[in-house]
Design brief:
alpha/beta, Rossmann fold, six-stranded parallel β-sheet, three-stranded parallel β-sheet, 11 helices, globular
Length: 296
Amino acid sequence: MAKIIDGKNIALTIRLIIKRSVLELGKKDIYPGLATIIVGNNSASRTYIKNKIKASNEVGIKSYHFDLEEKISETNLVELINRLNKDNKVDGILVQLPLPKHLNENNIIDCIKPEKDVDGFNIKNAGKIFLNRNGIAPCTPLGCLLLLRSIKVNLEGKNVVVIGRSNIVGKPIAQLLLNENCTVTIVHSRTKNISNFTKEADILIAAVGKPEIVKKEWLKKGSIVIDVGINRVEKDGQSKLVGDVDFNAASKVASYITPVPGGVGPMTIACLLVNTAKLACLRKNVMLPKILKEIF
């Protein structure tokens, strides 16, 4: 049976590191600040934002929240972002996605200054990750990398298969692992015979958004499985969360596996805090606190 990679517990350790780092920065009169913006009444987005604000407050990061009407114009949203770009109290700006359809997400993301791009979605930060130049990595891919590091696996030379090619997870996690000297393959909805690739994977990253699409027959024996998917389904008359991987079956083949919930999810918020603290240091031109360096 596979060993469980406990993302909830690892995320708690990271939060404690951030809390100590924020205290250290406070001695230098540096107080990391995170601005969060939500547009409209998407219930899932509101839950995510609530959890992000709560986590920020718990570690001492100052939180500035903006709750906007769904019908806000793109011009007014851009004006708010520009004000936050100039606000010295704000180190990171997060616009919760998805946005209402009348707003162009790419335009909005590109308005956030790269030095305040806490989600790592700006073109400049994406380019830095591509060139391995210490950019801000998107939170979920960074969380996946830290989960792999937590089990002390030697990543160099490992065959990795990433299922999914989104700009938010699939592409950046592939690049992060390429930067770790892995051999990386991305498969997606147009790939023929996906299981032919996954059966050769030492490490499988599932980020496709389809409930339990990855079966045990897709896996190499002893592989490491990181399940990014979060899907709500009806099972036995109850609503429950499942990943992109058939957890019970895959656990009989894999050596390590992340659960859903309690795997990648908690790491995403923890890495948001990591990025906020890192941006504060970069903006103020100070070295990362020693304990924060352990994460990188």
